[in-house]
Fold these 4 entries.
Entry 1:
Amino acid sequence: MCGLAGMAGDITLAAEKVFRDVLTFNSIYRGRHSTGMAVVQRDNSTKLIKQLGNAIDFFERNDALQAINAQTKVVIGHGRHATRGQITRNNAHPFLFDNIVGAHNGTLDNKHDIEGKDEFFGTDSEALFNLLDKEGAAKAVPKLKGAWALTWFDYQQNTINFVRNDKRPLWFAFSEDGKILFWSSEVWMLETAFYLHNFKYKAPFQIEVDKWLAWEVPAVNATFPRAKMRKLEGAPERNWNYNYSATNRGSYSVATPYWSVKQQRFISKEAGELERQAEQKAKEEARKSNEAEDAKGEEKPASNIVTLPVPTTKGLFETIADACKKKVERFDNEAPGPDGTILDREGWNRATHNKCAWCASDAEWEHRDEIQWISQDQFICHECLSGPDGDVIKNIATSYGV
Ligand SMILES: [Zn+2]
């Protein structure tokens, strides 16, 4: 699982605060192995900042804090939970190519099909964006198999783009004045961040399945125009029972807290029931309005998207904010393990008992985000990786499984 977060348009300081929280929620709840963001300025110059570990540590970096300014028009953020590929900074999102910069939530099943001859990428996601860069979305997406929610900025078109299939979520919301667009993998993350910063916004929507949405990024002080939308499906899949949890070997090994059973949300039972009823009603209304629009035969904007009604009571938001803080404390006792697992301290001590495969020194808990796992019980320590021969060691370790 990974998380997508971002914003585009006339970025303000208030918007930046909202974005930081949305990325942090995504990082804590959906992927803490690495955090990254691409910051695109009005002149298209782009700063890519990635680091191992969660977004809270990430935003302690001066360059991460200072990258976003009055000249920024797009910020694409990502919290990674590694499923395919090593946990390294190179494999962190976003990925920058000639024409696009973007981030992916999901896992592809056909990485090797989409890699060109003599091409090799560290992750399925990087291979995906390479294909998107070379061929454009209209040709690239129909070649994909697996799960995806994609966000990318197109330098030629000056557009911010979204497409997802039914295996991954992605939500967006505009500021009340229509000048800033925000997005996140989960809707409560947007709502909570807006609430915490007293930020006025329009109702959030989920990106419709198999629809490509592209918004031109407006000039300073202008509002977003209507999005361009077209159908865009991946490659047909064989109709076996696709079981996400069974194939996702990189899932969390920690017990799922009781409040996150339903889509990692920690709403009370009563609020959940209210929300379910309201969601049902909204779906019904959306269906009716679609039928009405279909009958009129008019061009449809990004409609027939189901609006998930949002908990708006102050108490509920505060509960969310509190729970987030608690969760952060709890995660201080965890570490990334081999194959994308999360280990507690005891489990991590066991997994590292063989010592560094290169220099045979002990693993250090405070550097747990910086070691590289090469098998279930083998790792390379942070000192070997960060030394002058770090890249060479990493390559050898990866190729031969030292
Ligand atoms: Zn070492």
Note: The pocket of zinc ion is lined by residues 356, 358-359, 361, 380-381, 383-384 (CB under 6 Å).
Entry 2:
Amino acid sequence: MRRAGWAVAGFAMGVAAVGSLLLTLVLHRGVSARATPAALEEAVARRLRQLAIPDEVRRVKSPVAPTADTLAMGRSHWADHCAVCHGNDGRGDTAIGRGLYPRAPDMRLDATQRLTDGELFFIIENGIRFTGMPGWGGGGPDGDVETWHLVQFVRHLPELTAEELLEMEHLNPKTRAELADQEETRAYLEGGGAPDPAVVDPPEATGAAARPPVGDADPD
Ligand code: HEC
């Protein structure tokens, strides 16, 4: 009973300490998302996140053997859903990735590569609360096999080749305006003179059916 009392008091003091640390950081550094998190804040956040991932999940090994095919699936999934924040190369050097707080990290580096397969899987399935990182899992008990392809791709980031990056550029989602621009440039480079208005004009103007963006917009 006494022991339990001490445990509760210890826990309350821990919560108060973390709370006052966060409050000090907010008062001192403001609430702008433009700032870069202090090293201490980042270390505390990483540690808390590690504690929040169950031990048995952390130890899980990928049930999907890495092959050229599974890697290709991870790569195209990444280009379609993740690159908008993380960049095709995983450096996080994108307009959104740079503007988030905390920023999208350079995932080629040790801090990410040291995470276990299970930790990467858990993060991708569930997202990271209070950050820009969304959860992508369908909520099933065993997670999605696509998530394992993504884990394999994250592991591959430090060795990504120029050919792979080029291929991914074709898989990145594009707006209608970007597609029209591309078409215009292509027509111009081929010396075709005026671009094809049916392609360049927005579908509303031509009465054509709305074209979905390139790539699969469905998160699965
Ligand atoms: C809207 C922006 C956004 C999108 C889209 C996004 N992420 Fe993230 N992701 C983030 C941010 C921001 C972080 C850093 C969070 C933090 O520091 O705690 C992050 C962190 C991660 C991490 C942890 C890295 C580390 O070192 O801690 C993994 C793994 C990850 N993302 C994978 C993915 C995958 C796979 C996808 C696509 C299915 C994806 N993310 C899509 C914003 C995004």
Note: The domain at 35-169 is CATH 1.10.760 (Cytochrome Bc1 Complex; Chain D, domain 2).
Entry 3:
Amino acid sequence: MSRPLRSYVDSTTICPDHPHFASAYVCAIQRVGIYLEHYSGALFDPDPDHQPWFKPNVLKVSDVSCVGHLSMWSMVDACASQVASVFETDLNFSRWCPTATTTCVQHLHCILQRLPNHSDIFTAPPTWIAECSDFFALCRALDLRSTRPKAGRFNLWGDAAVSKLLARKRPALVPVMDRVAGDRYPSAVGIRAKWAAFHSEVHGDTVLTAALAGIHAAACGSTPWITPLRLLDIIVWMHESPSGR
Ligand SMILES: [Zn+2]
Ligand SMILES: [Zn+2]
């Protein structure tokens, strides 16, 4: 049984992995500090002030490269050259697409521009992840673009990489769903079900969001662009991944 997400940041309980800290909250601040100082993942979230090339509604090779910072360099090697032209062609088609702002689910960039840029998972309604949602259409479209039938694999990137690419474009809305995060929901099958389980766990939890805001204030003075959602990803990863412990 996984620990509830809130237990990783709770100021009223002790972290079972690090009982020498006064509370899980204090432990979380310390874990985030270590992460930001020593792990390349600190370079993942977009920093609008210092990354002028970041465009929330345009998929670029720089996004794939940033996914690489989350221990996925093999994906960057395999994909960077291919995706550059896929993304560019898609963007060009999207510019002239008559249903770009309404119903198009053919083009990655049509769907992407319809996703609200500032929506966050703590307040987003469950419909953001629904079968018919723009978000899930984008997820499916990315999955299709990454299919390489000749390579003998259905999906070149996999759920973890698709989740990380989307997390880069919507850092407040999309949780990273790699193996560590996904294992928390063993009965949820598929990435959409795992996102839905995550969403229902954090949605409207004001104790959780207040704790994350406190941790952000304490640990992210020099990295203010990192979102509370990403902090939660980081804190759980630092406790549950063999590379984070
Ligand atoms: Zn701990
Ligand atoms: Zn379109």
Note: The pocket of zinc ion (ligand 1) is lined by residues 15, 17-18, 27, 239 (CB under 6 Å).
Entry 4:
Amino acid sequence: MKKGKNMLMKQKKKFAWWKEIRYFKPHKFDSPDKPGSGKLNMKRKFMFTLDMIRFMVGVPMHENSGFRTAAYNKKIKGNPNSAHLRGWGADIRARNSRIRFLIFEAAVKLGVRRIGIAKTFIHLDMDPSLPQEVLWPY
Ligand SMILES: [Zn+2]
């Protein structure tokens, strides 16, 4: 019983950094098929960077997609080696040229080196296992 409680405390501590994220709630990064998966899987470094991007952009940002389980990624026909699978990336809604530019500019300034531009969103990721300094359309 006591051991279980300690484990729980440790788990809580491990994810305490989410409290320092000012603009995003962990559940928004859940894979839709797995509640709670955003908090457990999104990478700290990426989330702090995204939070700073949001601060620099200065207007609300909406996340379309964060963490994805393999099953969900497959279902939506995501890239089989997507950064979303490892919690290193997110798709941020960007429906006009101004917001698209502001997010892009802030991301590059803050060291994001993998960016995808779609008509309605921007994919940002910092996955160190994937090629760096790449920009792609959808
Ligand atoms: Zn994406």
Note: The mean pLDDT is 95.
